[in-house]
Structure formats: structure tokens, C-alpha cells
């Protein structure tokens, strides 16, 4: 970018963020942002991903542009099992979560296994990747690619991407908010009740990442997941790229190459929350074997942290909210948190403003009841006595 392009860049950035603010879901956000961003930072291919804000694990939905589906496994093999540069887990904690491959390798991209195994065979010469992060939590990833022979991503372009990280992450985070109540006051969110089979979905992947077997419940879950990049399997099942990546990460953790829980929350197309978790099984000799991926309805305790995070509550406000949900009065909350009642009232006021409610009861209903009450109702046995 030259000095003469700065005004155009400023206008384009404002248009991008304006469109992002109007997006109603992650895929809409990705599509609009990519359309505007490509005019400011030209690129030939891209992947936009949602991540679980607690674990940082890739989840759904994903938008892939000008890339073949067969490369997903190759990409994540390089990310998880080789000594590479610009790893997403490192960028998530970096002061500036944006990096270019050629810049990081001193314009010697062949030093990167990602370049050799994934990019070079596809005619790609540089990657700019970013972690969309707000409040210290990753909400998504961006990977932008330029074709071989084009200029590497420059400092000004990386600075522009860095300026978009927080606002785009904040918008992604907001999609976890429950929908506003209907005019009659009843929740309008999709019920978390399970329309699937009676058991969890189970997929078994071999050490090389190939799908070995899958149960019928898993097929029902897969059928309800958002559209996105997927890979074929011998069973005729199209496995979402992020599900396969979860199995690969489980193996990487078992081999000591990665760390952290392999667990991610995702919404199906009807808005119900699911949880996907994976672990690597051990062979008779103790070595890592197949990886098991389980998909099942998310428990309320796993959903609420995402909703609280979506409203941008601070750690202290979250603590106060949890005590309110338990029905504790201001004085008791103050004593437990070693604060003055006046400070607690200030926190409560701030929480009300962020969540858009005016009473404790409305707060509990907004954050908790919509998710706790329906499962409880399903577990009640109702009888009548004459």
C-alpha cells in the first residue's frame, strides 16, 4: 500500500465493518468481509473458520474460497505434526495475532512444511493468517493465500488485517447470544432438545486420518451440521473438515505434539448446540492408535459460558451473574467477593446494560433459563392421582 491508497483503504475498511455489523450469522459475516477485504488486500484463495472460544479448536461453519477439499488433511497434518511457523495456537497468544509466511521465513517459504506439502503443489506462494480474537479468546481464524509469483503480503496489509481482528471477533462472538424474546415474553431460541437418536454419535478415524467406522447416530448429527468443506470417505460419508481435524488433533495431543482439550461447541442448522470431543485410543503396545470423535447435544453448563462471553461480560461481572442465578442478595454477593455492596450494585447495573434486561429475573431467564429449563422439562415424570 502506498500513501495515496490510504484514504481508499480507510473507506474500504469502514465499509467492511459496516457490512459485518449487519451480518446475521458467521457465514454471512465471512462472505461480506471477504468480498470487501479482497479489494483492499488482494488474494487468490482463502479459508475463514469459526473456533471454539474456550479451546481454540476449529469448528463450524467454515468458508473456503478457491481451494480443493482434498487439501484439508494435508493442511492440518502440517499444522499439528510438524515443526512449523505461525502456528495458530501461538498466534492466539501473540501480541499481534497476524503473521505472513514469507515474512516469518525470511522470504524462504521452503523452510515451512506447510509450503512444501500444501501450498507449493497448489501453486500458492504466501499465506497471511490471523486469529480473530477479542477479550483474550479466539473466535475464528483467517488464512489468505497468494499465488506463486505474486508479491508477499506486506507490513501495511498485515497492519490492516490486525486492525480488523478485534471488531470481526466481537461480531462472531455476538452470534452466541440467544435471540430476543418474542412479544409474549417467551424465548424464541431453538430448543436444545435432541431430534437425534438416543445415543451419542461416534466416528472412528485411523492413525492416517481415514474414517474407519461411524454409527447411525453420528450420521444424523452430520446431516444436521452447517454446510462447509468436507472430505469423502470409503463409507460414502462426507466428513466435515473440522471433525476430521479434531481427530487429528487428538492424535497430536496423544503424541505430545500438541496440548489442550479436544472439545468444541457448534450449532447445527436449527440452532441447537452440540459438543464435539475427541480422544486417541491406545494400542496394545501403548502407542497411539485410532481416534474416536463423539458428537452429542451440549449440556447447559457448556453453553452458558459461550453466551456469557457473547455479551462481553468481565470475569467479575460473570461471577456476580452466577451468584444472581443462585438467588443470592446483594449483601451476600458482596461478602463472598470481598466487595462493597455499592460496587456489586455497579456490577449488576453494568450486566443489565450489556444483556439488555432490567431485572434479576429477566437476567436469569436470558442467560440460563432458556437452556436449563427445556432439558429439565424432559426429565420430569408427570402423574395424576384421583
TrEMBL record:
Alphabetical list of SMART domains matching this protein: HTH_LUXR
Keyword Transcription in annotation: yes
HTH luxR-type domain ranges (all copies): 306-371
Entries under CDD domains matching the protein: LuxR_C_like (cd06170)
Keyword Signal: no
Coiled-coil intervals: none
This protein's name: Helix-turn-helix transcriptional regulator
Amino acid at each position: 500500500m502506498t500513501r495515496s491508497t490510504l484514504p481508499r483503504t480507510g473507506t474500504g475498511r469502514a465499509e467492511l465493518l459496516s457490512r459485518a455489523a449487519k451480518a446475521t450469522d458467521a457465514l454471512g459475516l465471512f462472505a461480506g468481509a471477504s468480498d470487501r477485504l479482497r479489494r483492499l488486500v488482494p488474494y487468490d484463495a482463502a479459508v475463514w473458520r469459526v473456533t471454539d472460544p474456550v479451546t481454540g479448536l476449529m469448528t463450524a461453519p467454515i468458508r473456503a474460497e478457491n481451494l480443493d477439499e482434498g487439501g484439508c488433511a494435508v493442511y492440518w497434518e502440517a499444522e499439528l505434526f510438524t515443526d512449523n511457523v505461525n502456528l495458530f495456537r501461538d498466534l492466539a497468544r501473540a501480541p499481534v495475532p497476524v503473521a505472513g509466511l514469507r515474512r516469518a521465513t525470511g522470504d524462504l517459504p521452503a523452510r515451512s512444511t506447510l509450503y512444501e506439502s500444501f501450498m507449493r503443489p497448489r501453486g500458492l506462494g504466501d499465506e497471511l493468517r490471523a486469529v480473530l480474537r477479542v477479550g483474550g479468546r479466539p473466535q475464528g481464524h483467517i488464512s489468505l493465500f497468494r499465488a506463486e509469483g505474486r508479491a508477499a503480503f506486506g507490513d501495511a496489509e498485515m497492519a490492516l488485517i490486525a486492525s480488523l481482528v478485534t471488531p470481526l471477533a466481537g461480531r462472531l462472538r455476538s452470534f452466541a447470544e440467544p435471540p430476543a424474546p418474542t412479544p409474549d415474553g417467551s424465548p424464541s431460541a431453538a430448543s436444545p432438545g435432541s431430534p437425534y437418536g438416543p445415543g451419542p454419535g461416534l466416528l472412528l478415524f485411523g492413525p492416517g486420518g481415514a474414517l474407519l467406522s461411524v454409527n447411525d447416530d453420528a450420521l444424523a448429527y452430520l446431516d444436521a451440521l452447517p454446510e462447509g468443506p468436507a472430505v469423502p470417505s470409503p463409507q460414502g460419508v462426507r466428513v466435515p473438515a473440522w471433525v476430521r481435524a479434531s481427530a487429528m488433533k487428538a492424535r497430536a495431543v496423544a503424541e505430545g505434539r500438541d496440548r489442550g482439550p479436544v472439545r468444541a461447541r457448534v450449532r447445527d442448522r436449527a440452532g441447537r448446540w452440540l459438543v464435539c470431543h475427541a480422544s486417541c485410543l491406545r494400542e496394545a503396545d501403548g502407542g497411539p492408535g485410532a481416534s474416536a470423535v463423539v458428537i452429542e447435544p451440549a449440556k447447559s453448563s457448556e453453553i452458558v459460558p459461550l453466551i456469557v462471553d457473547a455479551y462481553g461480560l468481565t470475569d467479575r461481572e460473570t461471577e456476580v451473574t452466577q451468584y444472581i442465578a443462585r438467588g443470592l442478595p446483594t449483601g451476600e454477593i458482596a461478602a463472598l467477593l470481598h466487595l462493597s455492596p455499592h460496587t456489586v450494585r455497579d456490577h449488576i447495573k453494568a450486566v443489565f446494560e450489556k444483556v439488555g434486561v432490567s431485572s434479576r429475573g429477566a437476567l436469569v431467564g436470558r442467560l440460563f433459563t432458556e437452556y436449563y429449563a427445556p432439558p429439565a422439562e424432559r426429565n420430569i415424570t408427570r402423574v395424576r392421582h384421583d
